[in-house]
Amino acid sequence: MDIIAWLVLGLIAGALAKLIYPGQQGGGIFATIGLGILGALVGGYLGQILLGSSSAAAASAGALSLPSIFFAVLGAMLLIFIWGLFTRRTA
């Protein structure tokens, strides 16, 4: 059941992050799920360290709640930003 929760959280967080973040991001459904899962880990870890929030820890654990989705989306948006820095082409 935990794997299904991770996939659902990843899909929700990745899709919301791509929807909110400006610009065009590539990738299909698997990239979106992966982005959301990694975003949940990053957002949960940073939220737990910076805020000491148990809601952020829930994002790292793959729990499906509004605060965990919020931290997962923030983490996914941070990953989109970092990915853009590495893949930016200069003229």
Explain what this protein looks like in three dimensions:
By secondary structure, the protein is mainly α. The protein has one domain (about 1-85). It has 4 helices and no strands. It has helices at about 1-20, 30-50, 55-60, 65-85. It is globular, with a radius of gyration of 13 Å. The model has no long low-confidence stretch (mean pLDDT about 75).
Per-chain topology:
Elements: H1 2-20, H2 29-51, H3 54-61, H4 66-87
User: What share of residues is helical?
Assistant: over 70%
Beta percentage is: under 5%
Sheet with most strands: none
- Which regions have little confidence, pLDDT < 50, spanning 5+ residues? none
Q: Secondary-structure element sequence?
A: HHHH
Q: Note the gap between the termini.
A: 48 Å
What would you call the shape?
Answer: globular
What attributes characterize this protein structure?
single chain, 4 helices, 79% helix, mainly alpha, 91 residues
In brief:
It contains 4 helices and no strands. The protein has 91 residues and is an all-alpha fold. It has one domain.
